[in-house]
Design goal:
With about 400 residues, the protein is of the alpha/beta class. It contains 13 helices and eight strands. The strands form three sheets. It has a three-stranded mixed beta sheet with strand order 2-1-3, with helices on one face. It has a three-stranded mixed beta sheet with strand order 6-5-7. It has a two-stranded antiparallel ribbon with strand order 4-8. α3 runs antiparallel to α5 and α4 (about 120-130) crosses α5. The model is unreliable at about 1-15 and about 180-230 (pLDDT under 50).
Length: about 400
């Protein structure tokens, strides 16, 4: 029967949300302090009420409950940050809900302090206005009452602080949502041979972080190639991108016996700001028309050349395990670092997509491959702190 090739295309629509790190850390610190203060203060109040054998106002268990709910809220934020990513829409909703809870606590605490409860006036009259000193039971009683008064004021202050920070989070989430970056990207790969007519399958995935979590990755798809496929328009006039200009000689690999590449200047400079700068300024590279890349393997440079010429990723595809499984990751990581050096953002994005596609593909044992320790160390040493590849390592 006729042998045909089936292609699977994977489309990914993703939202990237950028939260200010300093804001998140400061906000979490203050809200943790607010939650713990409410729990401790109202737990002590309930203990004192029980010891005195008098009724417990509803504000005391309410304060403990809101403090405990705040702890759950903060744990949720930490889990989201460590996993899929912090999404602003749920943060807006939760901030509004907790704002209502904190506002209720603030109103009731204000009534007890400055209204019908008259706590503030009693503290001023019997504690602040009548200090007691000396080693006596009366002094111990005064110290206990003073501690109660300070606890009331602390609770009141942290109700206000919590309200302010919840409003801050609400508007910060709105800002992050408005400034989100939407990306539509497509992976395509020739997959397997069948005896039926040519067919295609599309899988659409929508998620809200830079990289998909493991739970959302599709099943095994043994690829034989990875490529970014786009629909390019037809034109009636030739582009300035042509092959009739000068060439640049590139030496890649061991300086003693490098591999020599010839690259058209217009192609190199239109894709790489590194080549553009080298050829635009009065550097020795411009005069000699020679670029040396001694730290980059020839095979790695071939990946970049293949990308700028054909917009495909040259990669040793494998569904094996062990060293065979990590070989492709090594090539792609090296290529990403080369793209960073050449300042070719489009190439880095394409490599990042290929790395994600590799991570979604189960090996011959049905397991999802992961980066090895040596690859992670290389990424940590050679990439920028805010690079997509580092975010990928954290998500892994």
């Amino acid at each position: 029967m006729a042998r045909t090739e089936t292609t699977v295309q994977l489309h990914r629509h993703q939202h990237r949300f950028f939260w200010p790190l300093s804001f998140i850390l400061f906000w979490l610190l203050v809200m943790w302090a607010s939650a713990i203060t409410q729990i401790v203060v109202y737990a002590l109040f309930m203990q004192q009420q029980s010891q005195l054998q008098v009724g417990t106002p509803w504000l005391f268990p309410y304060g403990i409950t809101v403090g405990a709910m705040t702890v759950v809220f903060l744990l949720y934020i930490n889990i989201q940050m460590a996993g899929q990513g912090l999404v602003p829409q749920p943060m807006m909703l939760l901030s509004f809900v907790y704002f209502a809870l904190y506002l209720t606590g603030l109103i009731e605490t204000s009534i007890q302090l400055f209204g019908a409860g008259n706590v503030s006036q009693n503290c001023s009259r019997y504690i602040s206005g009548m200090p007691v000193k000396g080693a006596s039971p009366l002094t111990l009683a005064w110290l206990e009452q003073n501690s109660i008064c300070q606890s009331w004021y602390s609770s009141f202050a942290f109700w206000i602080v919590g309200l302010v920070f919840l409003v801050w989070m609400f508007f910060q989430a709105i800002s992050v949502s408005r400034n989100q970056v939407d990306e539509d990207q497509e992976f395509a790969g020739g997959l397997y041979n069948t005896t039926s007519s040519s067919a295609s399958l599309s899988i659409f995935i929508r998620h809200t972080s830079v990289l998909l979590p493991r739970a959302h990755r599709p099943g095994p798809t043994p690829p034989t190639s990875i490529a970014i496929r786009k629909s390019y328009p037809r034109v009636s006039t030739p582009s300035t991108f042509n092959f009739d200009g000068d060439v640049i000689t590139v030496h890649a690999g061991n300086p003693g016996s490098p591999t020599v590449f010839k690259v058209h200047e217009k192609i190199a400079c239109s894709n790489s700001k590194f080549f553009k700068a080298a050829m635009a300024h009065d550097f020795k590279e411009r005069k000699s028309r020679l670029i040396r890349l001694p730290e980059d393997l020839p095979d790695t440079f071939r990946v970049w050349l293949n990308w700028v010429m054909e917009h495909t990723i040259l990669s040793p595809i494998s569904t094996g395990v062990g060293l065979e499984s990590t070989k492709e990751f090594t090539r792609l990581v090296d290529a990403y670092i080369l793209g960073q050096k050449l300042v070719d953002v489009a190439f880095q994005d394409a490599i990042m997509d290929a790395i994600v596609a590799k991570a979604w593909t189960k090996d011959s044992k049905g397991c999802l491959p992961t980066l090895g320790p040596s690859q992670i160390l290389t990424i940590h040493q050679e990439t920028l702190p805010d690079s997509a590849l580092r975010h990928f390592v954290v998500d892994q």
